[in-house]
Design goal:
It is a single chain. By secondary structure, this protein is mostly helical. The chain has one domain. Helix content is 87%, strand content 0%. Helix 1 runs antiparallel to helix 2. It is elongated, with a radius of gyration of 15 Å.
C-alpha cells in the first residue's frame, strides 16, 4: 500500500471519519485491481 494512502487511512480511522474510510478503501481496491494484471502478466512470460 502506498505510504500516502496508509497515512490517510490511519488519520481517517483516528478521526472516525466513515466517509473518508470508505473512499480510501475504494481507492485501495481500485489500485490493487489495476496493479494485479500487470504483475500477473510479467510472471507468465518466463517459462
Amino acid at each position: 500500500m502506498p505510504q500516502w494512502l496508509c497515512n490517510q487511512m490511519m488519520r481517517a480511522f483516528q478521526q472516525k471519519d466513515r466517509r473518508q474510510i470508505k473512499l480510501l478503501n475504494d481507492c485501495w481496491y481500485f489500485y490493487r485491481t489495476k496493479q494485479a494484471p500487470k504483475e500477473h502478466d510479467s510472471g507468465s512470460v518466463m517459462q
